[in-house]
Please model this.
Amino acid sequence: MESSRPYDFIRKKNLSKVRGKLLYECKTPYHKLKVVEKEDFRILISGTGMAREQTSIDLKDLHRHVFDYSLLAMNSLCFLDNISSALIVGLGGGVIPRELHHHYPEIKIDILEIDPEMIKVATEYFFFEENENVRVILGDAFTTLQAFKGQYDFVMLDAFLENYTPFHLMTKEFLVLVKKTINS
Model:
């Protein structure tokens, strides 16, 4: 049965074969990145072989969540009161921090990102902007978090390499570091 979603081409198994206008392509120590535009969507594809979509935006409605996971991540805020600071591990195309800032402009948001090229892609192709309340900290989350203690009301883990979370960000040691960054 064919789906009626206009962006179902994004959900193809092998995104390296998505046909569309190639806007950008590069290889970094962490990713092989492609930005493709097809119909009214801009897609960030990461990886080789069985590449995976990292981000997609609807160019006609930038606040629409194309992928369910980003909407679900935002919904987690419904269970929290009085949030003044947030930490997001992983930038991708910057959709989640951009939307968090759009809906909660008073929250101070820090994003940890290991790949400087990802920051460039998020800014140039996915409408992500740093400002007085939104900043990107360049560095590995595991080592960078060791300096943070009790600074955030909300922490979201959204770091991926191709189609998996980096191993060292799934260890007990890393999760203990995350816990220490949360205000009690």
Observations:
- The two ends are 49 Å apart (CA to CA).
- Residues 116-125 form the longest helix (10 residues).
- The beta strands are 21-27, 32-38, 41-46, 52-58, 85-89, 108-113, 134-138, 154-157.
